[in-house]
Amino acid sequence: MQQQLDVALKLNRDPQVFAHKSHPGDVGGENVSVVFWVDMFLVFVLALCTLLQLPRIYARLSNPSERRYGHFLYRASQPKHPPTSTSSSSQGSETSQTGLVPADAADEKAARCPPPKHVRAWEALLRPLVPFLRTPFIERIHLGGTLFCAFYFGVVLFAGLYRTSVFTNPLRLGYVAVSQIPWVVVLASKNNIISLLLGIGWDHMNYIHRFAGRLLTIAANIHVLGYVYKWTNSGDFVRHISEPRYAWGLVAIVCIDVLFFFSLAIWRLRAHNVFYLSHIAASILFLVAVCLHMRAAIPWVIAAAGVYLADLALRCLKTRLCTARLAPLPELGATAVEVPALEGGWRAGQHVRLRVLSRRMGWLSWAETHPFTIASASGAIAQRGLVLLCKNTGRWTRRLQALAGKEQMDGSGMTMTVMVEGPYGGPGDTLLASFSGVLLVLGGSGISYGLAAAEELVQKATAGASTVTVLDLVWCVRYSDCLTPMLPIFTSLLAQAQAAGLAFQVTVFHTRAAIPARTCGAYDLPAGLTLLMGHPSLALRLRDLVSRTQQGALDAGADAGEKPRGVLVGVCGPMELGEDVRMAIDAVEPDVQRAVGGIELIEE
């Protein structure tokens, strides 16, 4: 960074770089110095947060069963073949047309591993403030995230106003905009150092990327307007704008505004390809234009380009070309995608990006990638590979289900060549197997996260690599027949959990009244699986789990004098479901939370 400062100072002293540099408030290299030290302050804040996270980082890396997962997908040692399927509506069958084959009841070759160390999150020190900080503010952004954005804005505002004025020195805001380029690029990359250090998935930090990008846009536009106003008043606008470096500055600001406009939610959600392509084209042109406009920006642009190229290289290393089997899940309104060749490498809660290489999905299907949460555990006993449940939410997923359904009617089965990139996101440095109790609250397609987490915990309990004694899974669906394709999986997991000594319960709530078209008939439900109508009382269920966890942990550690390791609540579903879970956690008395070792929340 010192070399970056020296280069920028040298360029700033070059009289040929900025003919417009002489104005009040710009003393020597003050503009460069201010934005440089503001960047250093942001690095210091990142280092401080990393220091607080170090105990959890060490706990994860010190456990062999945890440190090898979550980085790269690895292939099976021997080729696996998708199982021959039967009817998807068979309620008692141990196989299904979805390819979601239940795991064996026991794993004789399960490796015995020590359970991971449990380290409470440093946020536990802020326990009285947690309910306040978790208050929803804007969509999925909590008040804590909003306060951080306000802090970030204050830091950038200081850089723009320290010992100067935007009216007399618009050049300062040009430096402020340039200094934010590396941060915006880092926060946008899927393989970024900030996520690695803080244990937060890139997708959970994307709102900071958008906020930083908006600050960059505001600073750059005020910088341009300042000079337009100045040159217009002096009558020199045409003469200045005809100079190459200012023409490139105009190109740069147009690119920034294009990036801002096409990053709005309406484009991201309804025309993602337009958003993506405009981002790629405008970003590259912007980096080139800003260097030609402002030579002092080159060090920051080089840093941003280096981050972007490193991210691209890692994404290539994380990409696997495989053959996948597809099967429709009409009860869930989804399509199951099973990739038997990928054996493991991911953690529960992580997602991959799927690209289908088939003309049957359209001529441009190769250009589309879609993120899906993994619905199976890494190195699962059933050896069914990586499984995705692709919910029908748009044109691409509906085409996928229609194609899978057509092939199913032909009786030939459906296989496609796919590119799988990942894994990304996930629980970070939070170790599910290090707690005493786990409650999984899922809504609709959130079952993908629940299946992976439950299977991973049962698998580790079988191997003696988990301290979880109580595991509850609550799944909210619209209609009762959604249970049909999942029944064999739940039955198998319950049998494995019982053999491993894990108290596992599954409760499925169907929230819509029964209709003939969505009636599932009579289920032969195994012990531990309950089907109810209505909405769950999450506060009562959490209190019950806390009580059973505390008692189970005390019984298990009575001789050793161990205390409960806490309860983890994982939620994946609609925003309203997440809010209900937060309210249920906040309703538990502080004394009860301390007695059980604390209650932590993961939102996927």
Automatic annotation (TrEMBL):
Pfam families: FAD_binding_8, Ferric_reduct. Its main location: membrane. This is ferric-chelate reductase (NADPH). GO terms for cellular component: plasma membrane. It catalyses: 2 a Fe(II)-siderophore + NADP(+) + H(+) = 2 a Fe(III)-siderophore + NADPH. GO terms for molecular function: ferric-chelate reductase (NADPH) activity. The chain crosses the membrane at residues 34-54, 141-161, 181-199, 211-229, 249-267, 274-292. It is found in: Cell membrane. Residues 84-99 have a biased composition (Low complexity). It is a multi-pass membrane protein.
